[in-house]
C-alpha cells in the first residue's frame, strides 16, 4: 500500500535559536503507512535560520528575499506542500511554543475520517505561562470567530494545524499580516470539517513574536470583514480520503511519543 505523505511546514523568521530543536523533535516514524517530510518557509530571515534548519534535517527549504509577513509565509507553505505531493500538511511554529510530539494527535481525526482540518487547542489543553494580554486577545478574537462561524471555537489563533490535500488545494488567505481567523473562516465556509485537538502549550523561550494587538486591530479585522463578505463555493469533500485502518493510540512519555499500534486481526 502506498504511504501517505505528510509534510510538516514551519514558517520561520529569524528563528536560529529554536528551529533546529523543533525540526529534530518532529516525529518521523509514528505509523508504517505514513512518510513525514519537513519543509521550512524562510520569511526573509537575516540570521542563520536556513543553515540551522538544513543541519537539523529539513527536507525542503523555500526562502523569500525579504520579509513578507506570516500570512504570506503560511500561504506559501500550503502551496508548496500541495505542489510537492503532500497528502496531508501540518503547520507548526518554528519557535518551539507548540508541541511537535503531538503531531500524531493532530493527525488522528483526519486518519479516522472525522475531520479535514484540525487545530491544536491550547485552551482545551494547557495554557500555563501564557501572558495575560495574549490570553485576553485570544479570547476576544476567538469569540468573534465563533460568532461568524456560528459554532464554538476554543483557540482561533493556534499556530499548529493540519490540512487534508483537498483543504490544501482550496485554502485561501486574503492578506499577509496573519492567517489565523481568515483561514478557518474560509475553509469552514467551503464545507470542510474542523476539529480542535487539546495540546500542551509551551512558552516561547527564544525570539520574539511580531504579531501585536494593534496589528490585529488594523490588519486582521478588515481581513475578516473581507473574507466574510466575499462569496465562496462549497466543495464536494471526500471525507474518507486519508483513513488509516490501524491508527489507534500512542502514549506520551515526557516530550516523546511512544507509538503503540493494535493491528486488526481475524481470529
Give your account of this protein's structure:
With 267 residues, the chain is α/β, with parallel strands linked by helices. It has one domain (4-256): Spore Coat Polysaccharide Biosynthesis Protein SpsA, Chain A, CATH 3.90.550. Helices cover 33% and strands 21% of the residues. The chain is built from 8 helices and 9 strands. It has a 7-stranded mixed beta sheet with strand order 3-2-1-4-6-5-7, sandwiched between helices. Strands 8-9 form a two-stranded antiparallel sheet. Strand 1 (4-12), helix 1 (19-25) and strand 2 (34-42) form a beta-alpha-beta unit. The model is unreliable at 249-267 (pLDDT under 50).
How are the secondary structure elements laid out?
Elements: E1 4-12, H1 19-25, E2 34-42, H2 49-56, E3 60-63, H3 70-83, E4 88-91, H4 103-111, E5 117-126, H5 132-149, E6 161-164, H6 165-170, H7 180-189, E7 194-200, H8 213-229, E8 249-253, E9 256-260
Parallel strand pairs: 1-2, 1-4, 2-3, 5-7
Antiparallel strand pairs: 4-6, 5-6, 8-9
Give me some keywords for this one.
267 residues, alpha/beta, Spore Coat Polysaccharide Biosynthesis Protein SpsA, Chain A, 7-stranded mixed beta sheet, disordered C terminus
How would you briefly describe this protein structure?
It contains eight helices and nine strands. It has 267 residues and is of the alpha/beta class.
Amino acid at each position: 500500500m502506498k504511504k501517505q505523505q505528510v509534510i510538516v511546514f514551519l514558517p520561520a523568521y529569524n528563528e536560529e535559536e529554536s528551529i533546529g530543536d523543533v525540526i529534530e523533535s518532529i516525529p518521523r516514524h509514528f505509523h508504517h503507512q505514513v512518510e513525514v517530510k519537513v519543509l521550512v518557509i524562510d520569511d526573509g530571515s537575516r540570521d542563520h535560520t536556513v543553515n540551522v534548519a538544513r543541519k537539523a534535517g529539513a527536507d525542503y527549504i523555500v526562502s523569500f528575499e525579504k520579509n513578507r509577513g506570516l500570512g504570506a509565509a503560511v500561504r506559501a507553505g500550503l502551496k508548496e506542500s500541495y505542489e510537492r505531493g503532500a497528502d496531508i500538511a501540518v503547520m507548526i511554529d518554528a519557535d518551539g511554543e507548540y508541541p511537535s510530539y503531538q503531531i500524531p494527535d493532530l493527525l488522528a481525526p483526519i486518519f479516522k475520517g472525522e475531520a479535514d482540518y484540525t487545530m491544536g487547542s491550547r485552551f482545551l489543553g494547557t495554557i500555563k505561562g501564557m501572558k495575560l494580554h495574549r490570553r485576553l486577545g485570544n479570547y476576544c478574537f476567538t469569540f468573534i470567530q465563533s460568532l461568524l462561524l456560528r459554532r464554538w471555537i476554543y483557540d482561533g489563533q493556534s499556530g499548529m494545524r493540519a490540512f487534508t490535500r483537498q483543504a490544501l488545494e482550496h485554502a485561501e488567505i486574503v492578506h499577509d499580516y496573519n492567517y489565523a481567523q481568515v483561514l478557518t473562516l474560509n475553509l469552514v465556509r467551503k464545507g470542510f470539517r474542523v476539529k480542535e485537538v487539546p495540546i500542551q502549550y509551551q512558552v516561547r523561550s527564544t525570539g520574539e513574536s511580531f504579531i501585536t494587538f494593534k496589528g490585529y486591530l488594523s490588519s486582521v479585522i478588515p481581513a475578516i470583514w473581507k473574507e466574510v463578505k466575499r462569496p465562496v463555493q462549497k466543495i464536494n469533500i471526500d471525507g474518507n480520503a486519508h483513513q488509516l485502518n490501524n491508527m489507534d493510540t500512542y502514549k506520551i512519555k515526557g516530550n516523546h511519543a511512544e507509538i503503540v499500534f493494535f493491528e486488526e486481526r481475524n481470529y
